[in-house]
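Task: complex structure prediction.
Instruction: return structure tokens for all chains below.
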Amino acid sequence: MIHLEYLDRPHSVQTAPVVCMHCDSPTCAEVCPADAIKRTADGVVQAARKPRCIACNNCVLACPFGVPKMATDLELMMKCDMCYDRTSVGKKPMCATVCPSQALFYGTEDEIERLRPNSVPVNRFQFGDQTITTQVRVMAPKTPAVEYVDVTSSLNAQAIGQDIFFNILEEPFTGGK
Amino acid sequence: MALLPVDCTAILERFGPHLAYSEGLRLTTGVEPDRIVDTHCCFCGQQCGIRLKVKDNQVFGFEPREDFPFNQGMLCPKGVKRYLQGSHPDRLLSCYERDPRSPGGFRPLPYERAIERVASEIQRIQSAYGPDAFALLSGASLTNEKAYLIGKFAHMALKTANIDYNGRLCMVSAGAGNKKAFGVDRAANPWSDILKAEVIWISGANVAECAPITTNYIWQAREFGAKVIVIDPRITPIARTCDLFLPIKPGSDVALFNGVLHLMIENDWLDHEFINSHTAGFNDVAESVKAWTPEKTAAVTGVSERGIRQAAEWWGRAKTSFLMHARGIEHHSHGVQNVLGAINLVLASGRIGRPGCGYGTITGQANGQGAREHGQKCDQLPGYRELNNPAHRAEVAQVWGIDPRELPHAGADAYEIFRKIDRGEIRGLLSICFNPMVSLPDNNFIRRALDKVEFYAAVDFFLNETAHHADVVLPSALQEEDEGTVTQLEGRVIKINKAVDCPGDARPDWKIVQDLAHRLGCERGFSFQSPREIFEELRRASRGGIADYSGITYEKIEKQNGVFWPCPDEKHTGTPRLFEPGSWNPVAQGAGPFYFADGKARFNVATYTPSAETTDEDYPVILTTGRVVSQYLSGTQTRRIGPLVDQYPEPRVEMHPRLASRLGIADGDWTTVESRRGQLTLRAQVVTTIRPDTIFIPYHWAGSQSVNQLTISAQDPISRIPEFKVCAVRLRKTPSTGS
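Output:
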């Protein structure tokens, strides 16, 4: 289960799919009082186990990426488990398989190197003093080289794409009224 | 007599749209399907491969189809949720006839009685008023087999000149422009050529929402270093990540193309060798763009001179390129001129007919390509032949075993059919797969015309909003309930495979049409037992035509994952890329790669004229219309699929904050938009991603939410496409009702 958000619709059409990053040391699991969130040996952080989840919402509040959602009607936390039913049998997760722009991609480092020659995968995220490493990577430009994503400071960044438009749209407007 | 039988709310209550969500089998994990059917999506012209999971004659889920080369598993939200259209509570399971006393205004009717009634009304109207007094409207979501048979039915059984299809709202400007310039109307290249292009030019195409999979081709090319130029009045999702965005004033595309060609000539960014050897007419065009200086172009288009110069330089200096356009430049009263202007840029660059050098219009509907080739268009016969061409008439008449003199001549376009109804020249109407009450402009006029028709029969799988006015409704098959071929946006003929049987009395459109033909006394030529048999005749009928399918077989399609036409014989593997140097075609006969006797492409002077309705003091704002990613065309299917409706529940008026603040409108406010033809009230969406002089409203909705109450029915004189993309409106904040 993933969700999609507009970053700043009044000013941009940019959207962001929110998938679980599958942290090496998952905050959601660490704060779970019922030990309902398990991490598999291959690094996938699973959705809450139904018999154990007490719907306390701790994971929803604690996740630095805003991933888990509480399904109050089911009294169950739900989140992306990297389509464990698919990936455990050699298929790709559904979201990355169908993604029409391949903004979500599932594959090997070699494949992504070939498809995104100007970018490099990054899996270190800085939240203030805390560093989180994840199984899921985001692509960052090769130059300038980026070792980690400073999440706190990028919260203030503009939605991508505005720079090329503003100067054109803000020029004196000569069209109709 | 086609007034609504009962109040509209009563019809909606009985026939929907109701929303389908996953439940039962569809929500159960671990269900073993009875079978998995490899087929294609039922929606847009990309025709993505998809696998449908079937159990107990129900499509209960899907799997991506990663082996199909075009989409390699990718799907948009419409494709992901398309399985919810099956087993839908709104599905028409029997024939109906209007009956104000029945719930919802219609009472069920046995199939044979319905066929009997429609056929006898056709006979009554045609014998009283002549054969042309009964008209047919058909659709471009139909397979090639159905499109072919419906054209044959109109021309051979009904002998009416008046058949046209909803591609009139879609592909006709591009088609007419392509025929004038290349002599043939098909995307010139497979989409794989996009990946090899250095510059990608996108004019008037909301790619990410209307042809979502194409996004990956463009973005992948950009990853390899391509520069992407987008021309649109709105920052659409594909525009957000482009390299140059030109926020053009709606209706002025041809001016921009001419201005860019002016700069290409001034800077000698031309392929002289190509222009001299493979084209005709360049000098006249060069003369015609002399006046289009950057200053003048900027003044007309509302795009900065700097932007125009940058676009011209990138385009002019490129070694490889791909130019694509869609309805944004085609839905105009000068849509063909816009297309010709775009093609002039391609011809001047010489970048066509080679790897990484491409051009194509992005087809809208599932079979937007094939359905415009085989004879359901008002001036057309199969194989892209023309009704008014004596040689073409003779060729098709021979396949059909009739005298060419029996064939009618070219008839009226889809909009003109309603004007003829209004004037009393057409008295009866049969619509198949067409919902004009939502999709045609100025639909208050369409409703008035429908009220005048003496008899109207509608064929569809759900009761679409036009069918509300019908006297008889016949239930047809969903895409997954029949087999056949479709020609997708690259010109690749693909195969739709049957997954489930039709429920109730519903049946494939081709069976309904044949039953009508039989009841009208036409057995001969209408006794096909399967789509395959129809396809075999279509192959023969298209042989030697421009759109030659004669070498295509169902088996070859399956084996090759599609066959690009032309495919003139059984050994031929198809033609992915048109106009390759040294290629042969039936018109040039080896004289050159283009489809004219001398084998040369044609430059055409592309003339700028303002839109039919420009803004003035009373109506000071431009209205433009289009689509959203989660809805499809008139919404007959997608407004019934819950998750797609939830994604974008209702149309909104998109406007720039500068315009909104002048009118005192805040985001979310109810706003009344008014044109000379009608008005509607919707919530405002205040965004900086649109030109301040333009508002945008998507058109998928019906009734009081239909933006086509406002649009203008002005049409292109050549293609007869309506001007959906520009009309003049005024808007105001709707006073609070105090409720």
